[in-house]
């Protein structure tokens, strides 16, 4: 028996005539057009994931306006109340690298890369290059003033930033980033410096580090420095070892210095590797809960909340939730010290009253302890607060509520 697909009729070779050939030709053209349309739609969707706007900044410090590409995260237009991390890179061609890596590393729940606005120069600008060169040569600090007075304030004025700013640079731009950190440390919160050209650099960075690094304001900051043994990097290896040893030794409290060697990898791969590793470290405190045996968690729920308050107010400038750390601590105590476990989760609910996850954790603990009435009451709150979550959580929490309610009913009937 032959199954016939009506959309693609099978035509016997013996009865094929000119009209049939014509029909097949027309069908092929139509299918081709549909395929091209499909590809076009997909391409449009992909390009829409990383919309680019232009921002022109004029300054008395620069002889001509500088045009920047501002790459927005996919959610920027749909989430009008959301504020974003900023990443700035001086190299115009870094834009597609950062945009692609960011889109991939953030699309799965902003894990590990929190959604970020990426700003890069649109193209080479001689006027900007002039103040850049003056800073490198030590004849002017206009570059520092330009960043502080014009570049960063204009970005903040036009786009919704949450206050956390990352500087990214490769080779010479990485060395300049180190200079910015030392000479004006309040510009950025984190620095990704790949293959910095440190050997015989006019800024004399080793001397600057010796004199200035330990005296930086005592506030959280992150500095990633990386190098390889490629032929292009070899002349800077000795200086890199000296500088990174100095920085590791002299780092102020709350300054994290991360040093990596990507030996055996190609030179042009360095910024990709550096960015991947650095982003994971920069946002690790956002994603990674404290383990119950950590120094902070051992001090209890209040210490955990104080730690996350520090992360929110001092390190990142936006709220970092303590909920997962509180849940982990409570879980570790539920079997042997259930009273403490419940108290921790009650504190979590009090601190995060709108969180479906907080109410669900408390409900699950009550259920495990066979306090079915309290389990149902808390799970009802979890369901109510899950209305803005994705359907998976709404469905899961409703199923748990049904389970808890049925158990309560059965228990009452006994």
UniProtKB/TrEMBL annotation:
The keyword Membrane applies. The chain crosses the membrane at residues 21-41. InterPro entries: AB_hydrolase_fold (IPR029058), TPR-like_helical_dom_sf (IPR011990). This is Esterase. Keywords: Membrane, Transmembrane, Transmembrane helix.
């Amino acid at each position: 028996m032959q199954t016939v697909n009506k959309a693609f009729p099978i035509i016997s070779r013996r009865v094929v005539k000119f009209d049939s050939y014509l029909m097949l030709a027309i069908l092929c053209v139509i299918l081709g057009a549909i395929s091209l349309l499909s590809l076009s739609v997909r391409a449009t969707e992909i390009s829409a994931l990383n919309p680019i706007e232009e921002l022109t900044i004029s300054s008395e410090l620069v002889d001509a306006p500088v045009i920047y590409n501002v790459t927005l995260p996919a959610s920027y237009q749909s989430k009008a109340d959301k504020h974003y991390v900023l990443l700035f890179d001086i190299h115009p061609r870094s834009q597609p690298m950062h945009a692609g890596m960011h889109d991939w590393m953030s699309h799965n729940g902003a894990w590990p890369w929190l959604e970020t606005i990426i700003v890069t120069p649109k193209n080479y600008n001689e006027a900007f290059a002039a103040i850049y060169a003056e800073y490198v040569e030590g004849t002017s600090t206009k570059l520092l003033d330009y960043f502080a007075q014009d570049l960063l304030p204009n970005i903040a004025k036009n786009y919704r930033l949450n206050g956390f700013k990352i500087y990214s640079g490769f080779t010479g731009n990485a060395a300049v980033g180190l200079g910015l950190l030392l000479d004006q440390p309040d510009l950025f919160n984190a620095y990704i410096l790949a293959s910095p050209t440190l050997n015989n650099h006019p800024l004399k960075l080793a001397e600057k580090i010796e004199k200035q690094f330990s005296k930086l304001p005592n506030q959280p900051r992150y500095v990633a420095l990386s190098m390889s043994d490629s032929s292009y990097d070899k002349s800077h290896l000795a200086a890199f070892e000296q500088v990174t040893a100095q920085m590791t030794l002299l780092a102020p409290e709350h300054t994290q210095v991360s040093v990596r060697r990507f030996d055996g990898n190609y030179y042009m791969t360095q910024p990709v590797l550096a960015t991947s590793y650095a982003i994971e470290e920069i946002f690790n405190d956002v994603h990674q809960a404290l383990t119950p045996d950590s120094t902070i968690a051992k001090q209890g729920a209040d210490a955990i909340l104080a730690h996350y308050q520090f992360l929110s107010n001092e390190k990142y400038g936006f709220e970092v939730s303590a909920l997962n750390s509180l849940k982990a601590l409570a879980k570790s105590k539920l079997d042997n010290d259930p009273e403490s476990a419940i108290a921790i989760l009650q504190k979590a609910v009090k601190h995060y009253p709108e969180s479906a996850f907080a109410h669900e954790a408390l409900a699950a603990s009550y259920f495990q302890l066979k306090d079915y009435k309290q389990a149902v009451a808390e799970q009802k709150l979890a369901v109510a607060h899950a209305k803005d979550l994705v359907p998976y959580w709404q469905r899961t929490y409703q199923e748990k509520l049904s389970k808890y309610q049925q158990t309560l009913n059965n228990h009452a009937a006994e």
